[in-house]
């Protein structure tokens, strides 16, 4: 297709999206919440499609025009997400809370744990991500466990790692599993929380974090939502201009220290990160954490269903096929919501005075719930990540 045709397609989808959004708002005002919720959902999907159509268009444009278009892709994605949220909220107004679409939050709190503890989660708990786990073993864990081998072959490593990938794919979980595997304490902080602090406070916070980590000798320092902290220099606030160098100097202070620190950054938006961070010697290890492919979805669903009381035939293959683009967090949410159905049946039976109110999870529960949920990651987000990988010269890893 040529550029003009692609542009036409994009405009048409965008127009449909705006119309659906307007109709949704009108239904919402009229108190027709169910109708409004499904229109918001439709608008959200259309904005997602518009973002994907714009990505198609971008690929045909001159390189110098691309950043502006990419900003538009970002805006479309965020509108799509807001509308999805709105669809869920509106459905709740109708009392249909089981239509809510949420992604499971990472378990780590907003501030770092002063006395970091070794996390319980293991590599085996993390579904899929085989290439990522191998890279982590080669670059992070084995250099600690088998230092002499790395010295013999003159392989230099520093403990820096950047995990990037769509939300809910297991970045936080893998970081915790690394601390478990290396038998280290885990110190975690969300960069967006540091950035929100007052002038001067942010740097203090970073210093305190690294001091606490060093005091425990062997530690993983996990900096989540790295795009908030490490955004490109120039044109941004003083906090940024002071914070970024502070962080770099804390990381450079590594070698003079006799314990072991592993610093892991995680982000959904690696393209926003200050390139200074990505230079060799700082964060040389970039590791893509992709969405689960069909095989991994099948395994993950199987494992979750094995742990729950089910009855009757369950077509895991079909469920895995119909959850394309679902993250592991989305899948976990699906199972949780589906299980709510037999729980509610049991409660109703119990309240009615029945003796053995035992209920089981069935295929119908799973199928019905699946139809109310949508993947929380937009296709255009995946394509932006893949585009960035190409730009920084990374090979596209196998999915999973
Ligand atoms: N690869 C995975 N294997 C098993 N569970 C996962 C995986 N990815 C995500 N989850 C589930 O989703 C939740 C959120 O994942 P998280 O690691 O916080 O995602 P991210 O940090 O990439 O946004 C986890 O607590 C876990 O329950
Ligand atoms: Mg996370």
From the structure above, extract its key features.
single chain, 400 residues, alpha/beta, Methane Monooxygenase Hydroxylase, Chain G, domain 1, Rossmann fold, Helicase, Ruva Protein, domain 3, 3 domains, 5-stranded parallel β-sheet, 8% strand, globular, binds adenosine-5'-diphosphate, binds magnesium ion
Would you summarize the structure shown here?
The protein has 400 residues and is α/β, with parallel strands linked by helices.
Give the secondary structure arrangement, pairings included.
Layout: H1 3-29, H2 33-58, H3 66-93, H4 130-145, H5 147-152, E1 160-164, H6 171-181, E2 185-190, H7 191-195, H8 201-215, E3 218-224, H9 226-229, H10 238-252, E4 260-267, H11 275-278, E5 285-288, H12 294-306, H13 316-321, H14 328-351, H15 363-372, H16 379-391
Parallel strand pairs: 1-4, 1-5, 2-3, 3-4
Helix pairs in contact: 1-2, 2-3, 2-16, 8-10, 12-14, 14-15
The structure holds adenosine-5'-diphosphate (ADP) and magnesium ion.
Residues 104, 106-107, 126-129, 167-173, 266, 289, 328-329, 332 line the site of adenosine-5'-diphosphate (ADP).
Describe this structure in words.
The protein has 400 residues and is an alpha/beta fold. The chain folds into three domains: 3-101, Up-down Bundle (Methane Monooxygenase Hydroxylase, Chain G, domain 1); 123-290, P-loop containing nucleotide triphosphate hydrolases (Rossmann fold); 294-372, Orthogonal Bundle (Helicase, Ruva Protein, domain 3), CATH 1.10.8. The protein has 16 helices and five strands. It has helices spanning 3-29, 33-58, 66-93, 130-145, 147-152, 171-181, 191-195, 201-215, 226-229, 238-252, 275-278, 294-306, 316-321, 328-351, 363-372, 379-391; strands at 160-164, 185-190, 218-224, 260-267, 285-288. The protein is globular, with a radius of gyration of 23 Å. Mean pLDDT is 83; it is low at 96-115. Bound molecules: adenosine-5'-diphosphate (ADP) and magnesium ion.
């Amino acid at each position: 297709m040529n550029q003009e045709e692609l542009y036409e397609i994009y405009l048409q989808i965008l127009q449909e999206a705006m119309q659906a959004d307007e109709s949704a708002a009108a239904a919402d005002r009229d108190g027709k919440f169910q109708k409004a919720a499904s229109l918001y959902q439709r608008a959200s999907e259309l904005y997602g499609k518009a973002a994907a159509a714009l990505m198609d268009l971008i690929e045909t444009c001159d390189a110098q025009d691309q950043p502006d278009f990419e900003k538009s892709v970002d805006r479309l994605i965020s509108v799509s997400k807001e509308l999805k949220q709105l669809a869920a909220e509106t459905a709740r107004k109708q009392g249909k809370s089981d239509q809510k679409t949420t992604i499971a939050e990472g378990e780590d709190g907003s501030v770092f744990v002063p006395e970091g503890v070794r996390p319980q989660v293991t590599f085996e708990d993390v579904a899929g991500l085989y290439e990522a786990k191998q890279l982590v073993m080669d670059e992070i864990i084995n250099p600690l466990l088998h230092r002499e081998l790395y010295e013999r072959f003159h392989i230099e490593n520093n403990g820096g790692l950047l995990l990037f990938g769509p939300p809910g794919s297991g970045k936080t979980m893998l970081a915790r599993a690394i601390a478990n595997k290396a038998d280290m304490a885990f110190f975690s902080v969300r960069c967006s929380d540091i950035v929100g602090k007052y002038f001067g406070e942010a740097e203090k916070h970073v210093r305190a974090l690294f001091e606490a980590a060093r005091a425990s000798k062997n530690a993983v320092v996990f900096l989540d939502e790295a795009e908030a902290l490490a955004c490109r220099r120039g044109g941004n606030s003083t906090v940024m201009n002071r914070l970024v160098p502070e962080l770099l100097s804390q990381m450079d202070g590594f070698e003079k220290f006799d314990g072991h620190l592993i610093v892991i950054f995680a982000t959904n938006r690696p393209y926003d990160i200050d390139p200074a961070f990505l230079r060799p010697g700082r964060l040389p290890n970039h590791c893509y954490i992709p969405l689960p492919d069909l095989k991994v979805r099948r395994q993950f669903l199987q494992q979750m269903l094995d742990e729950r009381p089910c009855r009757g035939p369950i077509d895991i293959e079909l469920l895995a096929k119909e959850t394309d683009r679902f993250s592991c967090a989305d899948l976990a949410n699906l199972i949780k919501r589906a299980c709510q159905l037999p729980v509610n049946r049991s409660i109703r039976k119990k309240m009615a005075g029945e003796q053995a109110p035992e209920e089981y999870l069935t295929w119908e529960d799973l199928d019905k719930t699946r139809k109310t949920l949508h993947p929380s990651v937009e296709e255009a987000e995946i394509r932006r990540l893949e585009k960035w990988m190409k730009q920084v010269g990374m090979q596209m890893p196998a999915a999973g």
